[in-house]
Amino acid sequence: MTERPPWLDIGSLGPLTPVDSGRADATPGTAVHNLESEARSALAQAQSSKHGKGTRVLWAGPHQRVVLIAMTAGTRLAEHTSPPAASFQVVEGTARLYSAEPTHEGTLPDWVVEAGQIIPIPDERHGVEALTDCVFLLTVSLDPHADLPD
C-alpha cells in the first residue's frame, strides 16, 4: 500500500472537533449545520489555542470531507500537497491562499480571499495564511482509490 497523502488525514490541523448537529432525528450525512454558529465556535477555539487554530469537522465520509477551520491573524497552514479536488470558502475575515509552485514566469501565485468568496484550491502544493482572524470552509473530494493496494 502506498503512503497516505497528507490531505487524506486532516490530523495535521491539530485537534479536530466533530460537530453534533443537536438534532435527535438527524441521520449521518444529513445533519444541517449553522455555519455562523460553527464559525463562532471554531474561532473561539482558535483564539484560546496556543497554535491559533480551531476546527469543526462538519462531514467526514469516504469520498468527501467538509471542515470549518478558524485561524487567528498571522497563523499559517504550512505548505502541503493538494487533494484531488477541493474548494476554499472564507466565511469570516480574510485569508491568503498561496501556491508553493512557481508559474512559468517564475512567480508564486496567491489569492486574497475575503468573507463570502470561494476559490478552487490549486492542483499543486499550497499553503494558507490568515491575514485577519478568519474562518474558512474546506471542502475536499477524496480519491476513492487512495486506500486500495497498488
What does this protein look like?
By secondary structure, this protein is mainly beta. Helices cover 9% and strands 39% of the residues. The protein is built from one helix and ten strands; from the N terminus they run βαβββββββββ. The strands form two sheets. It has a six-stranded mixed β-sheet. Strands 4-9-6-7 form a four-stranded antiparallel β-sheet, with no helix packed on it. A hairpin with a 3-residue loop joins β2 (53-60) and β3 (64-71). The longest helix has 14 residues, at 35-48. The radius of gyration is 16 Å and the shape is globular.
Features:
150 residues, mainly beta, 4-stranded antiparallel β-sheet, disordered N terminus
| Helix/sheet category | mainly beta
Radius of gyration: 16 Å
Report the average pLDDT across residues: 81
First CA to last CA: what distance? 6 Å
User: What characterizes the major β-sheet?
Assistant: 6 strands, mixed
Strand share of the residues? 35-45%
Give the oligomer, counting copies of the same chain as homo and different chains as hetero.
single chain
Count of DSSP E strands?
10
Determine the fraction of residues in helical runs and give it as a percent range: under 10%
Arrangement of strands in the largest sheet = 1-2-3-10-5-8
Structure annotation, total helices? 1
Q: Given the C-alpha coordinates, what overall shape results?
A: globular
Sequence stretches where pLDDT stays below 50 over 5 or more residues: 1-17, 21-27
- Elements, N to C (H/E): EHEEEEEEEEE
